[in-house]
Amino acid sequence: MKKMSTAFTWLLSVAIVATACTCAVAIEGIEGLASEGSAKLKKEPTHLKLSIELSAKGKSTEEAAKNLDTLIANAKKKLTPLNPVADSVKTSSPTFLAFGDAQKAKVEQMLRARMQGSQQPIPAGLKMAKVTKAKTTLSATWELKTDTLLKKASLAEDIKTAITNADLPELTKKGALSAAQEEAAQEMAARRSRGYYSDDEEVPPGTPRFFFSATISEEEREKLIKEAFEKAKANAEQIARVTGVKVGKVKTLAVNSHSAYSGYDPYGRRGQMIESDENEQVQPDCVPMAFQVHARVLFAIEE
């Protein structure tokens, strides 16, 4: 195709301004007419998802793993009466971290400095014990079987309360809290369950994280792609009519799915990952979720 003239490019620029964000453009030197179109579908959440870090310690890796297995088994027993979706209760591969060596070296360095360089052995009672920590992420899903958004939010709160009261990480075994501490902890847990953290605040291990999810079917996604493409074509045809040319065949086509929270946890420095795919959205609040498809098309130009 011949190189586009300056006058032709100017006409395209005028057409773009006149149609107010049609997203159809033609640039001098590019052999084709580029256009864009988007389609959106809103859906209410259908499921509530849980993600929580469980950890256990031991004097060896074997002991830590055994203690973690016991903790996982107890957590699953506590979740069973809450009726999660079948086979949705899962745990990630455990990781292990040894503590003690670094702390021991710091203590020994401090003691030697106080002993003015003496090479006498450090008293056994002051030596740091080596501890291994094992941790995993447990996840589970609940179906929100009700018809309105308000009822879904209410049902979700009941499930959240039951899970929090179940104490899956068994934190209460580490010591009782005062009334004031308990009230503050409950308030903080309520904020964290919705995904809200301060700028310098990390997600503490054992904090249950809750997210709402919604999905679209393959048929619904195909419908969005078709709608986005048709809008892109309509935009291109509008520009073509103004410039006196015709829209030809599709030369290239790119389709992207947009999701604000799909596939990851956007809050917290140590927030657990939430599994999802391009047909699913995950958000911390019980609100309608928008699935959006964006199509970018390059059409041939026929004069």
Instruction: Estimate the strand proportion.
Output: 25-35%
Gap between N and C termini = 10 Å
Q: List the quaternary state of the chains.
A: single chain
CATH architecture of the domain at 38-170 and 188-218 and 257-295: 2-Layer Sandwich
Shape: elongated
What would the average pLDDT be, to the nearest integer? 77
Tally of DSSP helical segments? 6
Helix and strand content put the structural class at: alpha+beta
| Radius of gyration using CA atoms only | 29 Å
The CATH topology assignment of the domain at 38-170 and 188-218 and 257-295 is Alpha-Beta Plaits
DSSP strand tally? 9
Helix content: 25-40%
CATH superfamily of the domain at 38-170 and 188-218 and 257-295: Protein of unknown function (DUF541), domain 2
Characterization of the model:
By secondary structure, this protein is an alpha+beta fold. Helix content is 35%, strand content 27%. It is built from 6 helices and 9 strands; from the N terminus they run H-E-E-H-E-E-H-E-H-H-E-H-E-E-E. Strands 2, 3, 4, 5, 6 and 8 form a 6-stranded antiparallel β-sheet that branches. Strands 1-9-7 form a 3-stranded antiparallel β-sheet.
Can you describe this structure in just a few lines?
With 303 residues, the protein is an alpha+beta fold. The protein has six helices and nine strands, in the order H-E-E-H-E-E-H-E-H-H-E-H-E-E-E. The chain has helices at residues 6-18, 61-79, 101-114, 149-166, 179-193, 218-243; strands spanning 33-43, 47-58, 90-91, 95-99, 131-143, 209-215, 246-258, 280-283, 289-302.
